[in-house]
Each structure stands twice: as C-alpha cells, then as structure tokens.
Amino acid sequence: MFADPADAKARADCIRGVTKSVPALAEYDYVQGRFLVRVSRYLTPERAALYGTAVARLS
After folding, report:
1. What's the pLDDT at 7?
2. Is 2 within 8 Å of 36 (Cβ atoms)?
3. CB–CB of 36/14 below 8 Å?
4. In angstroms, rounded to a whole number, what is the distance separating the alpha carbons of residues 57 and 19?
C-alpha cells in the first residue's frame, strides 16, 4: 500500500521496467488505487487473473 495512487503506479512502472530487461524476474503486477499486488510468475495466467480480479475490488 502506498501513500497515493501515483506512487503505486510509479512503483509498478519501475518494476515492469526492470522485469522487461530481466525476464527471469517477470511477475504479474496489479495496481488498484494505492495498492500494488505482486504475484509470482509461477502461477498460470488464469490463476494470476484471479488475483487481478480480487485487487480490482480493493478500495
């Protein structure tokens, strides 16, 4: 949880920038408001999407 949505998005963008250049660090990242949830790349896309659905419900 971050101080504001902009901080959460900035951190997610930073993580995505790193993982783009180092695929072994890839993961699923979900941002909703002030929340950033990072999910292991070892989950199937279908399982990770369940986390995405749950994150979308956060306020």
Report:
1. 98
2. yes
3. no
4. 26
CA dihedral 57, 7, 27, 42 (to 10 degrees): -50
Residue 32: strand, helix, or coil: strand
Residue with token string 């999910």 = 39
For the chain, the structural domain boundaries read 5-56
Residue-wise pLDDT for 13-53, tens only, equals 999 999 999 989 999 999 999 999 999 999 999 999 999 99
Helical ranges in the chain per DSSP H: 5-21, 45-56
The single-letter code of the amino acid at 20 is K
